[in-house]
Design a protein that fits this description.
This protein is globular. A hairpin with a 6-residue loop joins strand 4 and strand 5 (46-51). Strands 2, 4, 5, 6, 9, 10 and 11 form a 7-stranded mixed β-sheet that branches. The protein has a 4-stranded antiparallel β-sheet with strand order 1-3-8-7, with no helix packed on it. The protein has strands at residues 3-7, 10-11, 18-25, 33-39, 46-51, 58-60, 68-73, 78-83, 92-99, 104-106, 110-113. Helix content is 0%, strand content 50%. The relative contact order is 0.32.
């Protein structure tokens, strides 16, 4: 079955950086648009960034524009999210999503904590 596994989360001081990875297996990776979502404690899951199948187009929620960068390595079946200039409000569990018109597959999440 399809697996998406996130990694790279952790505790980071404000202003710090991380690189989150999402490794896909048993998935035609290049067929899927990929997205990063996050869910902060007590809040609903929100879409943070997305990248199209070719990797040529990316979108970001306003609150991370200029600080986060989404990318994909189709040869390795890995989705990345570079997160810079982290703020306490970025604290959340980050999930990757493989999206097509027919299905969505989710990873288990990677926790990012930025203390205030």
């Amino acid at each position: 079955q399809v697996q998406l596994v996130e990694s790279g989360g952790g505790l980071v001081q404000p202003g710090g950086s991380l690189r989150l990875s999402c490794t896909a297996s048993r998935l035609h990776f290049s067929w899927y648009a990929m997205r990063w979502y996050r869910q902060a404690p007590g809040k609903e899951r929100e879409l943070v960034a997305g990248i199209c199948t070719s990797g040529g187009r990316t979108t970001y929620v306003d609150s991370v524009q200029g600080r986060f960068t989404i990318s994909r390595d189709k040869a390795k079946n890995i989705l990345y999210l570079e997160v810079n200039s982290l703020r306490p409000e970025d604290t959340a569990v980050y999930y990757c999503d493989a999206h097509s018109w027919a299905s969505d597959y989710w990873g288990q999440g990677a926790e990012v904590t930025v203390p205030s």
